[in-house]
């Protein structure tokens, strides 16, 4: 009974973040215009409140993925699968955290701006690898049960690539699509591992 209540409480928080807080905050931060000519790093440096908003968005996203992916890792049967997922998740969240504190001011600090871009890019790549690692590890245990999640991963990767090609750079449109779709994929994987 207590275990079921705890699972329900965790499910509530995962749903709240994946289905409401992360999508709503991501869309609000992106704003209503210029989705293909600006990005979150540029928006962040346009004002002190914007930087605080950017920092909060990054902490919320990193905290969500850290919790959901590590919890998913605990359900994996193979020790190496758990260790690999944990390492990729921690590295992705660490890179995102570093990108949040390294300023993106290309006119004043061009090298720091390049480092910021590199850290943000590596964080996204590592997050996608963590999601792929988790899906493939689950698929080894149940080949048919995770085919849909593997297709969803490919759709996120393809959609992100298409949005990058359309904008010619990392744009707000790409960041919105990637953040929301990756959060929903992690949520679905979390529920699937708990029999939901």
List keywords for this structure.
single chain; 196 residues; mainly alpha; 7 helices; globular
How would you classify the helix and strand content by structural class?
A: mainly alpha
Give the strand tally.
0
Order of helices and strands: HHHHHHH
Counting structural domains, the number is 1
| Average residue-wise pLDDT | 92
SSE topology sketch:
Elements: H1 2-30, H2 40-44, H3 48-74, H4 79-101, H5 110-141, H6 147-167, H7 172-193
Helix pairs in contact: 1-3, 1-7, 3-4, 3-5, 3-7, 4-5, 5-6, 5-7, 6-7
How does this structure look, described?
The two termini are 17 Å apart. The protein has 196 residues and is an all-alpha fold. The protein has seven helices and no strands. α6 runs antiparallel to α7. It has one domain. 81% of the residues lie in helices and 0% in strands.
Short description:
The protein has one domain (2-191). It has seven helices and no strands.
């Amino acid at each position: 009974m207590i275990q079921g209540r705890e699972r329900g409480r965790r499910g509530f928080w995962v749903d709240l973040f994946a289905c409401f807080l992360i999508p709503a905050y991501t869309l609000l931060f992106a704003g209503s215009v210029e989705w293909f000519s600006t990005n979150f790093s540029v928006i962040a440096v346009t004002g002190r409140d914007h930087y605080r908003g950017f920092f909060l968005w990054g902490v919320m996203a990193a905290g969500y993925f850290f919790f959901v992916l590590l919890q998913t890792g605990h359900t994996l049967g193979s020790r190496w699968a758990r260790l690999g997922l944990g390492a990729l998740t921690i590295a992705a969240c660490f890179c995102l955290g570093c990108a949040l504190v390294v300023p993106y001011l290309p006119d004043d600090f061009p090298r720091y701006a390049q480092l910021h871009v590199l850290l943000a890019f590596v964080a996204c790549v590592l997050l996608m690898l963590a999601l792929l690692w988790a899906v493939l590890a689950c698929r080894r245990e149940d080949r048919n049960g995770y085919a849909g999640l593997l297709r969803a991963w490919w759709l996120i990767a393809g959609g992100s690539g298409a949005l990058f090609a359309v904008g010619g750079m990392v744009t707000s449109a790409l960041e919105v699509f990637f953040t929301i779709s990756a959060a929903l994929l992690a949520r679905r994987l979390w529920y699937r591992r708990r029999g939901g």
